[in-house]
Amino acid sequence: MSLDLDRFPRLALVPHPTPIQPLNGLSSALGAALNGVRLFMKRDDIAYVGGGGNKLRKLEFLLGAARSDGADTVITVGALQSNHARLTAAAAARENFACELFLTRTVPRTDPDYTGNGNRFLDDLFGASVHELAGDADSLAAAEARAAALRAEGRRVQVFPSGGSSAVGSLGYAACAEEIVAQSEAMGVTFAHIITANGSAGTHAGLAAGLFAMGRDPKLAKSYAVLATQGQAEAETLAKANATLALLKPGATLDPSDVVVDGSHRGPGYGIPTDAMREAVRLIARTEGVLLDPVYSGKAFAGLLHDIRAGHYRPGDAVLFLMTGGVPGLFASPSAFAEG
Ligand SMILES: *Cc1c(COP(=O)(O)O)cnc(C)c1O
């Protein structure tokens, strides 16, 4: 069943469909520990702009709506090393919107790699106006206040929430779910699970909403929380999935049991490295030549590896990991990978 996404204004920021590849090198390295699971990766780090990452699918719809509403300026919020902020800056540059970013010092670090390299370096390169705030500041309130001031000068401004995870932004991952269903049919592979990291929850929410609106099981999507606790992430994912469903299929709603989130691989907190994350990033780099990121996909892949080794997936299960990008985060944290 088609989601009829052409109803919504949209720009093209990633090639559609992004490729799905088998993880053969990793699979042979895991050997018996793989327990007969068939591992695949969907390359949502491949893109037309900005170095790539999952925020671009959301920005296709967010900037599409901004363009059709006549906006000339977009403002968004995030942590100092936000991938979403960097990709908003890049896409705004290409699509000719002015861009302002309100970034909070959420992670307790003051070293120059964190404060000036990685995404933060690229924000400047893409020409965004950056406002840095304390870790506990209300960045969305600051962004709204700035938007009001700019509107008073006659500018037409749209503000995107953290991670671009509004209902409109999450449509990007409903579109991804539609792509996965079509690719799965073309490949003759039925995915038992679609795995992603969960930060601002829009990726999981969009996948679950899209699957459900197509008449598929929303529980195919499973996420590992890296920002909120499991309970908070479940509640946020459910609320966002239902807000997205209200756009796709008014009247349809998901239940709490439709949202599968695992909160046990976040470690001490958002952006704080864990040994399992380091192992996952190194293993994929050295067996596949592919880069996970330290904040999101590294922890999610660590969770997937843990669960495969613990026998939580059945022999023969095809498991699709969503590669969500975030490579600049590695350059904000080289010390986390210093060989001991
Ligand atoms: C933002 C992000 C995620 C999580 O996506 P949400 O929609 O915020 O849950 C995963 N991976 C990377 C690299 C990200 O930047």
UniProtKB/TrEMBL annotation:
Keyword rRNA processing: no
Pfam families membership: PALP
Domain of life per record: Bacteria
Residues covered by the Tryptophan synthase beta chain-like PALP domain: 15-325
Cofactor: pyridoxal 5'-phosphate
PANTHER family according to UniProt: 1-AMINOCYCLOPROPANE-1-CARBOXYLATE DEAMINASE-RELATED
Family to which the UniProt record says this protein belongs: Belongs to the ACC deaminase/D-cysteine desulfhydrase family.
Protein name as annotated: L-cysteate sulfo-lyase
Organism annotation: Methylobacterium cerastii
Gene this chain is encoded by: cuyA
